[in-house]
């Protein structure tokens, strides 16, 4: 039994096509095609097509969540966070299709997604508070905290990748093991549970990405609060008061 | 016992111990966090959405330690590097 979907399916000289890449392309095509199909004829009257209704609910829900987590205008974050959420959610939901292997169950996909977050955090931070303002964050309490801040940045990226990978891989592996022992009803229950965890993991991944970005863009206004919080992961969530 | 048998036995034993110990701590922590969140929601039902979101993020953080243990035990059983090395070395 192989726990990685990364073994090659098809190879031509040095170009290797494996299941992860194939299903990632399929999901990308599906997302683009469905969005194109729906946004081709949008209506602004009160009578909406089903697809437009679905997309509006998704976009408005995402905007509200981003607004609540970051306490900022969600406009500039929506493309990035929304893409992360939609890609992970769709690739986890598709697990009900037989023969499909979720690309999020491969460490390479989740590491790539976590790397996107790792790159996006400084970009948003620098865009919001300038280069020096962002860099000052690393020496926030004192210069001696510099290595710990850097390690924190790296380890949370690793945690993002391994969390999503472990959750999706565990669903697939436990499903396969149960299929060998009790093939009647139990795998169906595990599938249903896997759908739930899939959605929750997509939600958690995008909320955590938003929290990290918010902690990079926030700190100007909330210096005094930030000093008291040992771990900047939870900062924007904890200091929220309304 | 030859080295393959020892490696197999130790790997399986360690995988079991890893997943057992690694799920106790997060389970206790998640139960505690959930209990606190429930009592907080009972006191302030208006803040339920904020509390729930914070709870989810926190649970994800706590759960990642259990996920690490799970990944390590999976590696020990299915992708053990020593196992592969000795299988190659013994020509099996």
TrEMBL record, chain A:
GO cellular component: plasma membrane; proton-transporting ATP synthase complex
Gene3D superfamilies xref list: ATP synthase, F0 complex, subunit A
Region Disordered, residue ranges: 223-242
Lineage top rank: taxon: Bacteria
GO BP field: proton motive force-driven plasma membrane ATP synthesis
UniProt xrefs under Pfam families: ATP-synt_A
CDD domains, A to Z: ATP-synt_Fo_a_6
InterPro entries: Alt_ATP_synth_F0_Asu, ATP_syn_F0_a_bact/chloroplast, ATP_synth_F0_asu, ATP_synth_F0_asu_AS, F0_ATP_A_sf
Record field: compositional bias (Basic and acidic residues): 223-235
SUPFAM superfamilies, A to Z: F1F0 ATP synthase subunit A (SSF81336)
Keywords associated with the record: ATP synthesis, Cell membrane, CF(0), Hydrogen ion transport, Ion transport, Membrane, Transmembrane, Transmembrane helix, Transport
Gene Ontology terms, MF aspect: proton-transporting ATP synthase activity, rotational mechanism
Membrane topology term: Multi-pass membrane protein
Subcellular location: Cell membrane; Membrane
Keyword Transmembrane helix: yes
Transmembrane segments: 20-39, 77-100, 106-127, 164-186, 192-214
Functional summary from the UniProt entry: Key component of the proton channel; it plays a direct role in the translocation of protons across the membrane.
Sequence similarity: Belongs to the ATPase A chain family.
Protein name: ATP synthase subunit a
Species, as recorded: Gimesia fumaroli
From TrEMBL, chain B:
GO annotation, cellular component aspect: plasma membrane; proton-transporting ATP synthase complex; proton-transporting two-sector ATPase complex, proton-transporting domain
Domain of life: Bacteria
The protein, known as: ATP synthase subunit c
InterPro entries reported in the protein's UniProt record: Alt_ATP_synth_F0_Csu, ATP_synth_csu_bac/chlpt, ATP_synth_F0_csu, ATPase_proteolipid_c-like_dom, F/V-ATP_Csub_sf
Family to which this protein belongs: Belongs to the ATPase C chain family.
Molecular function via GO: lipid binding; proton-transporting ATP synthase activity, rotational mechanism
Record function comment: F(1)F(0) ATP synthase produces ATP from ADP in the presence of a proton or sodium gradient. F-type ATPases consist of two structural domains, F(1) containing the extramembraneous catalytic core and F(0) containing the membrane proton channel, linked together by a central stalk and a peripheral stalk. During catalysis, ATP synthesis in the catalytic domain of F(1) is coupled via a rotary mechanism of the central stalk subunits to proton translocation.
Subcellular location: Cell membrane; Membrane
Membrane-traversing stretches: 6-28, 55-79
Listed NCBIfam families: alt_F1F0_F0_C (TIGR03322), ATP_synt_c (TIGR01260), PRK13468.1 (NF009998)
Marked site positions, Reversibly protonated during proton transport: 63
Name of the gene encoding the protein in the UniProt record: atpE_2
Keywords, alphabetical: ATP synthesis, Cell membrane, CF(0), Hydrogen ion transport, Ion transport, Lipid-binding, Membrane, Transmembrane, Transmembrane helix, Transport
Residue ranges annotated for the V-ATPase proteolipid subunit C-like domain, each copy included: 13-76
Main localization of the protein described in the UniProt heading: membrane
Its membrane topology: Multi-pass membrane protein
């Amino acid at each position: 039994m192989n726990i990685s979907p990364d073994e090659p399916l098809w190879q031509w000289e040095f170009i290797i096509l494996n299941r992860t890449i194939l299903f990632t392309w399929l999901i990308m095509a599906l997302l683009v095609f469905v969005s194109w199909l729906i946004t081709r004829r949008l209506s602004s009257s009160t009578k909406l097509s089903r697809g437009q209704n679905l997309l509006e609910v998704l976009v408005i829900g995402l905007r509200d969540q981003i607004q609540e987590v970051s306490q900022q205008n969600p406009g500039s974050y929506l493309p990035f966070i929304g893409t992360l959420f939609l890609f992970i959610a769709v690739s986890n939901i598709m697990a009900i299709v037989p023969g499909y292997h979720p690309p999020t169950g491969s460490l390479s996909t989740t590491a790539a997604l976590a790397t996107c977050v790792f790159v996006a955090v400084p970009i948003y931070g620098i865009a919001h508070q300038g280069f020096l303002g962002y860099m000052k964050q690393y020496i926030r309490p004192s210069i001696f905290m510099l290595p710990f801040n850097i390690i924190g940045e790296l380890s949370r990226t690793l945690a993002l990748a391994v969390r999503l990978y472990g959750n999706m891989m565990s669903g697939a592996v436990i499903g396969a093991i149960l299929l060998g022992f009790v093939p009647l009803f139990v795998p169906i229950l595990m599938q249903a549970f896997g759908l739930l965890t899939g959605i929750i993991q997509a939600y958690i991944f995008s909320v955590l990405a938003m929290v990290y970005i918010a902690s990079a863009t926030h700190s100007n206004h909330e210096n005094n609060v930030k000093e008291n919080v040992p771990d900047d992961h939870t900062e924007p969530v904890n200091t929220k008061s309304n | 016992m030859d080295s393959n048998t020892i490696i197999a036995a130790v790997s399986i034993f360690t995988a079991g111990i890893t997943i057992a110990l690694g799920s106790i701590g997060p389970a206790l922590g998640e139960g505690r966090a959930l209990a606190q969140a429930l009592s907080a929601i009972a006191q302030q039902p208006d803040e339920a959405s904020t509390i729930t979101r914070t709870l989810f993020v926190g649970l994800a953080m706590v759960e990642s330690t259990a996920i690490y243990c799970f990944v390590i035990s999976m590696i020990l059983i299915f992708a053990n590097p020593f196992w592969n090395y000795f299988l190659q070395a013994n020509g099996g």
